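Quick log. Single chain, no ligands specified.
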Amino acid sequence: MAEIYLEFEKPLVELRKKLQELQELSENNKVDLSLEIESLTGRINETMKEIYSSLTPWQRVQLARHPERPYTLDYIEHIFTNFIELAGDRRFRDDKAIIGGFAKFQGKPIMVIGTQKGRDMKSNLYRNFGWPSPEGYRKAMRLMQLADKAGVPIVTFIDTPGAFPGIASEERHIAEAIAVNLRDMFALRVPVISIVIGEGGSGGAIGIGVGNRILIMENAYYSVITPEGCAAILWKDRKFAPQAADALQLTAEKLLELGIADGIIPEPFGGAQRDHAEAAKLLGEALSKQLAELRKLSGNKLREQRYDKFRAMGKFTEVLPVQNSEETTEKEVSE
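-> predicted structure:
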């Protein structure tokens, strides 16, 4: 399969094409072109360094959506063993956009839940392009409560542009399903680690994202709305998505700075899509560290820590009227 290049990666296309031509010429004609090949390889490495060391927020969004990026099932295959998928919400049907089940991580039981996209049109239709429906969130909550009863830690993988916004989804109460998950995840007495591995879009992400730790892959994003949706609202035109991505502060570095994310998981140079095994290895190391810390806490402490974490997010300014006066005073409240 031909390698897929994003728009900003196109300078690499010609260089790699020339490198391939030189290598073929050297091999087919038995000509020593090692110096030329070495020089061109150096240029490629320098170009890659220039591109990937100064990515814009919009370019990171594009990397987060890369069709060859590892998805939940890829990470399950690489870092977990004995995965047993559990299906159905016991009310309507099974949602293939969210998968979950018991597995083992480093020999210990764990509950793995995540959103799943497809690689081609057939699999994307099967997975509803990674847009979960109400029954997906109800299934996820059922599995979390099962893990809670068993005293097993929970790991959620987030990679969705958002919850499915169709009429059928509204008819089956998508907002209520997400709201119930937010409420009930705060009551869990086992460690919960949420990892944004690609797209972290709106309520679709936070519906399985109330964790004691929120980790984000280096080139993933986490936002209240997609850049295109934000651009359509603010500028009335989706072509302003790059500007919206800048304004939304959705990159891993910004999220860590704002206290939304607790840690950034590094990726192979150029993005996780370049080396699934290495990306999984780096994710597994971060997961192991966080689990070791959270396993030391009691159930009550885990609940308190999760609640306090989310209450501390964000700041707002409250304007309070002064009694017996027309003047007002401003008070900044940190929540």
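The radius of gyration is 23 Å.
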